[in-house]
Design a protein that fits this description.
The chain is mainly α. It contains 8 helices and no strands. About 5% of the residues have low confidence.
């Protein structure tokens, strides 16, 4: 290989890491960050991180569901409903979205819709955590 070609190759290889520094975080890293904000009850901080993920991956059911959850916790129930519906459109069997949407239905005074979500969870996963949590919420009438 000629000296100029070697120099060009070396420059290209050295530039790779520098260019990588400016790339957006991987959606899974951003999702972990959003989950940490949610775990700390900083729902308003989780929203922008989740919106960023969704802008890059519009059918990311986990991000869509957590965005619905965050808006529900912020008291924006109509907005939460929209995001739960989007999560379930992306993945109709998303257990978390079915549970959280069921809890939203209870908050909106629609126990029949919550029960429908519980029935679907029971069909999908038996007595998994999401099913048990929604069943407890329905039993508590919340």
């Amino acid at each position: 290989m000629s000296r100029p070609a070697t120099l060009v190759l070396c420059l290209l290889l050295c530039a790779g890491p520098a260019l990588a520094v400016d790339t957006a975080p991987a959606p899974q890293d951003a999702l972990a960050t959003a989950r940490a904000e949610i775990a700390a009850a900083r729902y308003d901080a989780a929203v922008p991180a989740l919106l960023d993920i969704i802008s890059r991956e519009p059918r990311n059911a986990d991000a869509l569901n957590l965005l619905g959850f965050s808006y529900r916790k912020l008291g924006q129930l109509d907005v939460a409903r929209t995001w739960y519906e989007a999560a379930l459109t992306a993945d109709p069997a998303h257990l978390g979205a079915l549970e959280y949407q069921g809890e939203l239905f209870l908050m909106l005074g629609d126990p029949a819709a919550a029960q429908a979500n519980l029935d679907r969870l029971t069909m999908l996963c038996g007595s998994c955590e999401e099913q048990a949590d929604l069943a407890a919420a329905i039993a508590a009438g919340s």
